[in-house]
Amino acid sequence: MPFLIETWDKPDSQALRQQHRATHLDFLAANAAKLLAVGAKLADDGSDGGGSFYIVDVETREEAEAFLAADPFSQAGLPARHVTTRWRKAYLDGKSYLPPKA
After folding, report:
1. I need a labelling partner for 18 at 20 to 30 A (CA). Which of 25, 46, 56, 96 fits?
2. pTM
3. pLDDT by residue (tens digit) across 36-76?
């Protein structure tokens, strides 16, 4: 069952985020088979919101935590904190994953 991971960047870390962005994107591309969704959190004006969301298709919390730990953003010390939550697909890309009604 997938896990949703939300991260919050350390204050004043936009330069650190930009410094490691290319290797972070390479990491995501190399792990694309595990990714249901990923993206930066943004402020309403579209500027950086200081964190990320990941929905990773792995079996265990340990795998989700290992995924995050291997991310170049994490290795650079960008997140101040994160929360990992087990997640159940109901709808994704307009497709229902709910069981049929009896």
Report:
1. 56
2. 0.90
3. 999 999 989 988 889 999 999 999 999 999 999 999 999 99
